[in-house]
Amino acid sequence: MSKHLKFLTALAFGVAAAGLVAAGPASAKVEGDTIIIGSAISFTGKYSTNGIHAKNGYDLGVKRVNEMGGVKVGGKVYKLKIKYYDDESTPLRTAQLAERLIKQDGIKYILGPYSSATTKAMAPITEKYKIPMVEAEGASRSLFTQGYKYIFAVLSTSEQYLASSIALAAEMAKKAGKKPSDVRVAMAFENDPFSLDVRAGVMDDIKKFGMKIVIDDKLPRDLADMSATLTKVKALKPDLLVISGHSKGAATAARQIKELKIDVPMIAITHCEAAKIVKLFGAATNDFLCPTQWAETLSYKGKYFGTAAEYDKLFKATYDGYRNVPYQAAQASAAVLVWKDAFERANSFDTEKLRQALSETNMKTFYGDIRFAPEGNNIAKPMVLRQIQDGKFNVVAPSKWASHKVNWPRTVPGM
Amino acid sequence: MNTRLRRTLPYAGLLIAGIAAPFLFPDYTFQFTVLWVMILFALTWDILGGQMGYNSLGNIAFFGVGMYICAVVQIGLYYDVAQYTASYGAVKVEFTADQYFTGLAVGLIAAGLGAMVFSIILGWVVFGLRGPYFAIGTLGVALSAGELTGAWDYVGGGGGIALPIYPGEPDDRSLFFYVLSFTLTIILFFLLRWIYLGRFGLAANAIRDDEEKAEGMGIHTMRYKTVGWAIAAFFLGISGALFGNMIGFIEPLEVAFPTVTFGLFMVVMCLLGGRGTLWGPVIGATLFHTFKEVTWIYLLGWQWVALGALIVVSVVFFQQGIVGWVKEKWPEKFGIAVDDRALAETDPDLDEAPSQRLRRQTEAAQ
Question: Is B221 helix (H, G, I), strand (E, B) or coil?
Fold first, then answer.
């Protein structure tokens, strides 16, 4: 009996002690010669694939900056370090972790989470505490209409993701001797802030061309099955199929398009690279159109990673298992470079001075030009559309950046 | 120490801890706020799950319903909700401090009442189900509530709603929500203590032990179940409204109706602490929340494994939960020996089912 009591007492004390450790001293924003940046990102849950891509990008950026001499502030050289937490892919957790990073850990500089939903939960809190956040993975327009002053996004906003595929479909229709208004569009979107914003962009362009929407579906919450939509696609034979559902949605779409032998002249899907669909589904993904924030074939160049192609090479050499470097990783690395640049220009650790420096950012990087609008989004970099041609991602639109001609209608070898 | 003082001590301790926490550890106010919400989750789940033996997996629906009712009221008082949500929070709307606090006050009350009404209507439908059927039935309600909200454009669908932002300083905001959550949970706690001690507690336990027999003895079981669920829904609704405002951005699947996280956590916390007791949910929730916070920081990558292990250990070794287990090992520590003697005098036929009787005695004494 008393043995049990002792055990229980020990258990209670153990838990209490663990709690106290958790409540231990808050670490400072700058410790010795290290600048600590905080990030709550998705290690688990439905966005974990991209969360890990982003983390790899952050880590590579930090590694590179540290290797190339670190960050010079006030004549002293500092190293960068990131403190991570897992947000479980849910905004519920993000809000708690934001408080933890800022209040308990004393973090003064934030790198954004993955996905628009989590970034939307993070932004009001960083804003309240006046903590600048450079984010690379929250593209929803609504992030930049709230008058936030402490959010800086290196990426293009989400309504631009698939809009160019609509223009391309119109162009192809004209080429085939039809009117753009004859184009019949099938759409399937995840029911989340990001994809709904992508949808809003697509809808604007569809209206502009007067196209017909024949299917307008929502993907199920776990993004594991879209056969209902695809069965309708088989019956209705649209001219264009548009899908957006992060990596998991892209993988599901590619798998079921292959299984159900879906034959549509043009298919556009977000997050192709991140979902590694070429590696997983091979030739069945031929001629898919994939919007991207960045491509290794673009002629961008910067001090830290050299050209886009050099970044691509370095990333593949650093991390195993990547056939294509997802843009989520590239923009994460770019966000780290933005922080580095801001620290040096502000020449201070003061958050207000850093905010000012961030707002004046004007950089050329391997990821493209970075210049922030007063609302915080990057206005210096376009979104491009790539097509999977024989397993390779080739830029096909907009024409200024296109390296290859678009294949239309799409063909699948052996089908 | 006299018995009376010893009995009041834990309650006083809870109150003092709750009041002192944000002053002793001001940086942890947000975590403590979440802790009180977790305790509220466990306490409300236990009304049906512990006291009446109705294992609901769908109580989180009331949380989400409250959250959305409050959000719609807060915005709807001053703006057109459909217009506000049409562009997924892309419109910028300023709320004055007056508007914010009036909206929140009205919203909180509406959330509580709305969730309560929802629970009464729902009770009609699902209280005919028993055991696993009830569990699955309620789970279905919570899941479909999330899906339906996600398909409802008026409230922003899957794009969610950005809630008005607290007008004051960020630290005041943390304290503001802490005080509200703490007060709400303490009110619930003492309300439950009061009703468990009375006729309601006895009837609830009778329903758990044998519902047919309870009904045969003239207990209006449906009424008790409905009242119990309505109380749970009222408090869950308000907590949902508070939580939504703390998060600042709500959407149906992950924030408002998190069936597989919060929805299951409330069950696990009760099992861990000891279902069917007043203190069990409090202790279970505190342990669970602390464990989760600690592992999520120090065991990154293994956090879900650790949480799984905790659940397995608690289910295998502490089936009655911590409070239940401790009580069975040391009944005298809970003043049961005293009652035992008194009981022996009035009822010498004690050998029949002593442990059963003891347990019920203890729970009644709580």
Answer: helix
CATH number of A160-296+384-397: 3.40.50.2300
What is the value of pTM for the model shown?
0.81
- Asked if residue B301 is part of any domain, the answer here is no
Instruction: Say whether residue B313 is in contact with chain A using an 8 A CB cutoff.
Output: no
Query: A–B: how many Cβ contacts below 8 A?
Result: 143
Q: Is A71 helix (H, G, I), strand (E, B) or coil?
A: strand
Rounded-to-integer distance, Cα B201 and Cα B365, Å: 10
Is the pLDDT reported for residue B108 higher than 90?
Answer: yes
- Interchain CB distance below 8 Å, B255 and A92: yes
The phi-psi region of residue A335 (left if phi > 0; otherwise alpha if psi is between -120 and 50; otherwise beta) is alpha
Domain-embedded: residue B23: no
What pLDDT does residue A147 have? 82
CB contact under 8 A, A99 and B31: yes
Q: Inter-chain contact A91–B255, Cβ cutoff 8 Å?
A: yes
In chain A, where are the structural domains located?
A: 30-157+298-371, 160-296+384-397
Domain A30-157+298-371 CATH (choose: 3.40.50.2300, 3.10.20.30, 1.10.10.2840, 3.50.30.10): 3.40.50.2300
Residues of chain B contacting residue A15, judged by C-beta atoms under 8 Å apart: 287, 290-291
- How many domains is chain B partitioned into structurally? 1
Determine contact: A25 vs chain B, CB below 8 A: no
Spatial contact of A355 and A132, defined as CB atoms under 8 Å apart: yes
Q: B-chain residues within 8 Å CB-CB of A142? A: 87-90, 159, 162
> In this complex, is the C-beta atom of A192 within 8 Å of any C-beta atom belonging to chain B?
yes
The answer to whether the Cβ–Cβ distance between A121 and B247 falls below 8 Å is: yes
Segment A59-107, tens digit of pLDDT:
999 999 999 999 999 889 999 999 999 988 888 889 889 988 998 889 9
Residue B199: inside a domain, yes or no?
Answer: yes
CA separation for the pair A395, A393 (Å, rounded): 7
pLDDT tens track for B257-292: 998 889 999 999 999 998 888 999 999 999 999 998
Cβ-based burial of B355 (10 A; exposed 0-12, middle 13-18, buried ≥19): exposed
- A191: pLDDT strictly greater than 80: yes
Q: What is the DSSP letter of B256?
A: I
The distance of A265 to chain B (nearest Cα, Å) reads: 30
**How far apart (Å, rounded) are the C-alpha atoms in residues A277 and A267?**
14
Q: How far is A46 from chain B (nearest CA, A)?
A: 11
Residue B192 sits in which domain range?
A: 28-259
| pLDDT tens string A297-336 | 888 899 899 999 999 999 999 998 888 888 999 999 999 9
Task: Evaluate whether residue B229 is within a structural domain.
Answer: yes
